[in-house]
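Narrative summary of target 7.
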Amino acid sequence: MGELSAATAVRTTWPELPLRIREEVEHRLGASVLKAASQGGGFTNGVAARLTLADAGRAFVKALPDDHELAPDYRSEARIAGALPTPVPASRLRFSLEEPGWIVLVYEDVEGRHPDFACPGDLAAALTCVQDLATILTPNPLAWAPDITEPLGPLLQGWRRFLEEGATPGLDEWSARNLDRLAELESQWVRATAGDTLLHADLRHDNMLVTAEGTALTVDWAWACVGADWVELVYLLPSVAAAGRDPEAVVTSHPVTRKADPAAIDAFVCALAGFYTHSGRQSDPDWSPYIRAHERQYGRLCRDWLARRTGWA
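Modeled conformation, tokenized:
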């Protein structure tokens, strides 16, 4: 099964922002906006637009109401993106602002596109980017960055939630048959992912860009946290699997996972599978009509991958 359509977000557009917000952004940019091209990727309903400016400059703007449930993520992203070391392959934050009613982040505009992992060149660029991240961000350069358990701890307990809920109608046969040991393996992910690398911790194909030069960089650092360097790659691999490629082939060949404990990788893949499977069964949030379909797809991919790794029938 291929990756979901690139048009996964139902966006608020630049002209729909309050005039005072648009004027403040233009003031900070030093030029008026001539054109705003809304971007369809991702899973929020906030503004995401590439701006063409009257002085021939460009910028990328993100904006979200300050009472949105994802507003804390935007605040976290502004703090992290503004503090990333210069060598990190990431889009550069020019400024952020929080005006009554809105949170706004403005980045340098990157001429690029989301990678297609069915394309060998795009996959190679992404894998090089992951290796560069591990090298540059180990040891963690931001002493105040949270441990991996802070953002991901509340999420990565899907199999244990299934057990607590008792009846699991509609759960696939493999998961239902192995639920007890899935919950046990999932419980080991916290210890398995301990480390001293600053992680993006939300790498997917739509959180990366490939430039005209063929290099890859990262965007959307809202979930950054500290853990083992190999976590970054494993988190990305469901996107690779969605493009029809074998994630296990990457694990065995990539430097960051080649040296990792296979049992630790099992625990984290299990935790991802549990999250996607459980969350994908919830009702659609009003800000994203596609996120549950995305989670269901990634749940299937992670379960299939984990079944191969464990050999569980």
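Confidence is low (pLDDT under 50) at residues 1-7.
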